Amino acid sequence: MRFVRCQFLLLFALVAALSLQAQAPPHPPPQALLNLQVPGPAADVSSPVTATAAFDPPVARVGESVFYRVAIDGATVDIAWPGAIPAPPELKFGRRSHGQLMQGLMNKFRPLASFLYEVRATAAGHFAVSKFVVEVRGQPVRIPAASLDVDNSAAGPPARHLTLEISQTNVFLGQPLRARVVLSASPSNTIEALREIQFNGDQFMSDKTTMRQAIEMIWRHGRATPAYVYEITLTPIMTGTLPLSAQAFTAGREFTGPMGITARVIIPDGPPHYVFLVSNPVQVNVRALPTAGLPAGFTGSIGTFALGPPQLSTNRIQVGEPVRLTVAVRSSGDLNRLVPPTLPRVPGWEIVADQPSGFSYTLVPLTDTVRKTPAIPFSCFDPAKDSYVDLTIPSLPVTVTAKGLPGDVPAMDAGFASGPSLKLSRLSPAPGGPAASLEPPQLRAGLVCLQTVPALAFLGWWQWDRRRRFLQAHPSLVRRREARRALRRERRRLRAASRRGDAAAFVRHATNAMKIASAPHYAAHPQALVCAEVLQQLGGAERSGATGATVRKIFAAADARFAPAPQTPADWPALEADVNAVLLRLEERL
To answer: CA–CA separation, 201 vs 243, rounded Å?
Structure first.
């Protein structure tokens, strides 16, 4: 029976392994992996920089606003734009705007910068802005000339521009408002997309999650016309009268993101023609919230909100049993801007906000003495009423029991009450150790010095390790240093032998000293050197002179020890000064 059971288990394991192998996802083909490694288009910064300049429109009336637009194939940060444009005095240049985008050209990206001026003509005639030169990445680039015809009898098309619409121009600090950028269709019913939409105003914060774009019908000059519409929520972060304007590039059919189309329009074909457009500035008056009468529970929510009656999952609960409290919220605006209230600390209750955080809470009673749920303070600021609104979540009656728990809570309380009462211990009969100061150690100057000890220790260890690695890479320095130490020891022994009158010891120590001073140059043991190798460390004149003779005489006396009748030179006391001179000469070469 056991054998049959083992066979069944082995068969089951084999079938499971085969099924897992059959369900394993197939490996991606090599071509798919190669496609992931293909680099994207590179930025083209090496091609010659070109520039264009033109008036939009080229024909206008006296006092009519036109735009002078310059486009350069380069990044804005690389362009040294002049402060003034050489233009006739009849052309009054107003505010200036600039923008940049990356345009796709075949398999490369190339930056495109555009500078835009608002111009008004004060007289009729033919006016031209002469050509001038700007520097792009340190190289001169010629801006071509552009002309404008000002004629009151001419009625050309108006200048292309964006329209910026604001839901409210009088708001409070932190109150969200809706901004709407509109680009009307051309007379031929052609519509273009917008790229690099930007709001000029550092005092506003945009919420990209609320962005909406569409092609729809709008009312312009008393008639319906199709237009490209871009909407987003902005929040002022400063007070005062703040200017706000919009800018963007037309991008042909390069629509990005989801879009609703409810109008019949013509979308241009072919490569896009990027044109830099701006809108007229809109003044937004931002006021600060009133500080007087600030109620409890205000979390910064601004808008028109209303709370429904709170709902409990049950009103009969036991101690420790969670109950859910939910509150419905109504608003005429965006509920995403509503900040839930801060949970209070109430004796007898544990309050936990449900995830995701909102107006749903889990309440846990900690004792059976509570008779109602805690009130949760909450308030918001209603800009329509220009005042704070109290939206506190009220209390609800509940019945809390302790039945069914392990033990009777009242009996437990009585047992604790009948037990020994806890009290503080008596004061110490003797004082503790003396304290130099009541100042905490964190404020003492010695702590700063103590904290520098690990840093100094680490710095010392680092210097030691750096020196060790340097000497490891240059062993000749170690050999020379050890040779100088050994040479000093032998010279002391040499002087001691001379004072004792020991001729044999004098010769032995003099020979060892010469070998030690010459050994680092051969990277050999000192006892392996001979007289010729010591002489090689002297100059040619020294080897043939008195210095060389002294070395030969000392080595000859040392070699005489191995003769049948050892002999020492009779004039060895006179050789002490010559030996010291030889050793000083050899020590200089270490």
So the answer is: 7
Q: What is the structure's pLDDT at 16?
A: 47
**Residue range 19-76, pLDDT digits in tens:** 444 444 445 555 544 454 555 566 666 778 889 999 988 888 888 889 999 999 888 8
Q: How many CB atoms lie within 10 A of CB 397?
A: 9
Supply the pLDDT for residue 467.
Answer: 92
> Under DSSP, is residue 350 helix (H, G, I), strand (E, B) or coil?
strand
Asked if 491 contacts 586 with a C-beta cutoff of 8 angstroms, the reply is: no
560 inside domain:
yes
Q: Which of 362, 386, 388, 366 minimizes the C-alpha distance to 376?
A: 362
- Residue 440 inside a domain? The answer is no
CATH of the domain at 145: 2.60.40.740
Under 8 Å between Cβ of 81 and 100? no
Q: Is there a single domain that holds both residue 523 and residue 557?
A: yes
The contacts of residue 270 (CB under 8 Å, 6+ apart) are 252
Domain assignment of residue 489, given as a range: 476-588
Instruction: Say if pTM beats, i.e. exceeds, 0.85.
Output: no
Tell me the three state secondary structure of residue 144: coil
Q: How far is CA 489 from CA 449, 483, 484, 494, 502, in A?
A: 43, 10, 9, 9, 17
Query: How many separate domains does the chain show?
Result: 4
**Listed residues 150, 178, 210: the one ending a domain:** 150
Residues 6+ apart with CB under 8 A from 297: 341, 342, 376, 377, 378, 379, 391, 392
How confident is the model at residue 253, as a pLDDT? 84
Confidence at residue 444, expressed as pLDDT on a 0 to 100 scale: 81
State the pLDDT at residue 405.
62
The domain boundary, picked from 87, 116, 150, lies at 150
Name the DSSP class of 212.
E
DSSP of 239-308 = -EEEEEEEEEEE-TT---S--EE-S--BPPPSS----EEEB--EEEEEEPPP-TTPPTTEEEEES-EEE-
CATH number at residue 390: 2.60.40
Q: Does any domain span residue 325? A: yes
Q: 3-state DSSP helix/strand/coil percent for the chain, to nearest 5?
A: 30, 35, 40
Is the domain of 130 the same as that of 181?
Answer: no
Q: How far is CA 136 from CA 53, 84, 105, in A?
A: 16, 17, 20
Pairing between β-strand 316-318 and β-strand 399-401 as defined by DSSP bridges:
parallel
Distance set, CA 529 to CA 478, 488, 555 (Å): 19, 19, 11
Q: What are the residue ranges in the chain where pLDDT is below 70?
A: 1-45, 106, 154-156, 333, 355-358, 404-421, 562-573
* pLDDT at residue 565 in the model: 57
